């Protein structure tokens, strides 16, 4: 699916077409178009004009973060779809070919978002995930897209073809009823996509009723808008209304956190990005920052150290460095755990304690959030040392465990227990 405009709500950021980007050669344009038949692509004026360094493409990290690259597809698949484009294939031919390629990629477009959906009175609560005791994730239906798409997005299946919006919630009442039935839930995390693509008045319909629930003490909003569209907080028509809404949440005595997705220090460098942070902080909301570690974008210690240093200087809090989960083009983005650990260690060792609030590398996987703490030698055998920061079963929280060292392992399910041991969190 090729889509080269920003969110329809932001008419003025419309990017006329790829042809308007002079820095792209004809072949590069064709490559982008070919891959974009398969994987979602969306970019806006701000990214094109202010974030990408066009003198450095195709290796510029923001270009890689947003623009599709031929290496994201299997070489044969790439050639097939490229040749179809050159031959002037019909839309239908292109779509059939793209669907075939997608079906071979992980995560498969169906089913990934149906995990952890809770029930109330025997019925699934739509648009809610509840995995960790204290925190409920809410997916408002109008917030299931983004201002621009990250090329590594693991939620990409929801941006292509027939969107599986069964998952998102249009109605807030069942969510509220569920929260009322679970007084142990202190945190509600609105997520997407990006809930801040929603107009303020639409967001308010989800947010304000939560303030009537005394058990909900923290509201978090997962967002990339601070990086992809800081105008949202500064000059959009309803930017001021959004800030007033944040103030209302704070005035109710709650903690409001923007879980901001910043992948690269350049996203923090523009005056408008800094102004957005200043305005958000002015409401009393806290900005906590997280991003995955991905090849071609931020796979080195200096980039992370600089990212965290700038975050601290701007008064925002480094929170998580994630290991990229299985997205379709995993081979393209993957950074093995051993390398991720070196990158994390190299980054934290360059910064002061205030920037070491970033925990990583962290895998958000089925049993919980597992952090790779380091490596160690036991009786001459090299091991990884890990711990659960979060766990589906609370008894595993802060549980420390070891696994065989494996230079290539890139996810928890690639790890094996050491000789004669088993992972205690797995059923025997
Ligand atoms: C990461 C995550 C949370 C939040 O975890 P914190 O450690 O509290 O930030 C909640 N639910 C799910 C499913 C998550 O993956
Ligand atoms: S902001 Fe998040 S949900 Fe949106 S495209 Fe990027 S990774 Fe995906």
Tell me what you see in this structure.
The protein is an alpha/beta fold and 428 residues long. It has one domain: Aldolase class I (TIM Barrel). The chain has 14 helices and 13 strands. It has helices at residues 26-35, 45-51, 61-66, 75-86, 91-104, 173-181, 200-207, 225-228, 231-234, 239-251, 271-282, 301-313, 330-333, 337-348, and strands at residues 119-120, 123-124, 128-132, 135-138, 187-190, 218-223, 255-261, 286-293, 317-323, 359-364, 368-378, 381-391, 400-404. It has an 11-stranded mixed sheet. A two-stranded antiparallel ribbon has the order 1-2. Helix 4 (75-86) runs antiparallel to helix 5 (91-104) and helix 12 (301-313) packs across helix 14. The longest helix is centred in the first third of the chain and has 14 residues, at 91-104. Residues 1-16 have low confidence and may be disordered. It binds pyridoxal-5'-phosphate and iron/sulfur cluster. Iron/sulfur cluster (SF4) binds at residues 146, 149-150, 153, 155, 192-194, 224, 261.
In short:
The chain is α/β, with parallel strands linked by helices and 428 residues long. Helices cover 30% and strands 18% of the residues.
Topology at a glance:
Blueprint: H1 26-35, H2 45-51, H3 61-66, H4 75-86, H5 91-104, E1 119-120, E2 123-124, E3 128-132, E4 135-138, H6 173-181, E5 187-190, H7 200-207, E6 218-223, H8 225-228, H9 231-234, H10 239-251, E7 255-261, H11 271-282, E8 286-293, H12 301-313, E9 317-323, H13 330-333, H14 337-348, E10 359-364, E11 368-378, E12 381-391, E13 400-404
Parallel strand pairs: 4-5, 5-6, 6-7, 7-8, 8-9, 9-10
Antiparallel strand pairs: 1-2, 3-4, 10-11, 11-12, 12-13
Helix pairs in contact: 1-4, 4-5, 7-10, 12-14
